[in-house]
Amino acid sequence: METATLVRSMEAPTATSVATVTAPTMQTGTTTTSTRKTGVLVGLLFLIATFTFATGNALIHSYFSSATPHNRILIAGVLLLASDGLAVAANGLAMRRILSPHTPARSQAYVLLRAAECLTVVAVGAYFLTSHAQWGGYVLAVYAIAGAAGLVLSSALLTSGIVPRNLSILGVIGYPVFLMGSILAMFHVIDVTHGAGMLALVLGGLFELILPMWLFTHGFDSDHIEER
């Protein structure tokens, strides 16, 4: 009887220990998979926003510069701007989930800035559809908000360490130049849409191109992820 009791008392802690070791392993696997999917989603949203804004802006410019403008071109351009707005807003929400454990204030600021960018492009599209009047300066307003959002994001990425440090630094350096160039262009000091003034957009543009590629192939660094 004493032997049987001793065997049972030794088996119980062993089973508990196995359960304790197994549970975190399963949780880590789930977190890694979820994080990887979020990284791919964020990368895709960056590329969708870039493509839809550039194409929509080109169509709107074509509409106002054409001798015989067609409403279909303007409508298509406005719809693409709206798609850009939805993409950047979704980007902000997706990144909040990743960044909030590391930089809660900046993750919230990023969401708000991306929401402001979304509202801006939607309002601009509504203006074009209702007034049919040209307003080239809207691009600079969008650039200014996007530059501020990019600076918040890249600084948060640098703090969290979830992407390579060099990539984060590219954004930390590039977006202030991007933002300053947009502000100077509003006061007609430089022109960021033509000539040498376009150099102000280069580093920020590279960041938004390289980051999605990195996320598609590597995802966020799971060693630094503490998702909620």
Topology:
Elements: H1 2-65, H2 71-99, H3 104-131, H4 138-160, H5 165-186, H6 202-217
Helix pairs in contact: 1-2, 1-6, 2-3, 3-4, 4-5, 5-6
Largest sheet: none
Count, helices = 6
- Could you tell me how far the N terminus lies from the C terminus, measured between alpha carbons in angstroms? 49 Å
Strand percentage lies at under 5%
Task: Provide an overview of this structure.
The chain is 80% helix and 0% strand. It is mainly alpha-helical and 228 residues long. The relative contact order is 0.11. It is built from 6 helices and no strands. The longest helix is centred in the first third of the chain and has 64 residues. The N terminus is likely disordered. The chain has one domain.
List keywords for this structure.
228 residues, globular, mainly alpha
Brief rundown of the structure:
This protein has 228 residues and is mostly helical.
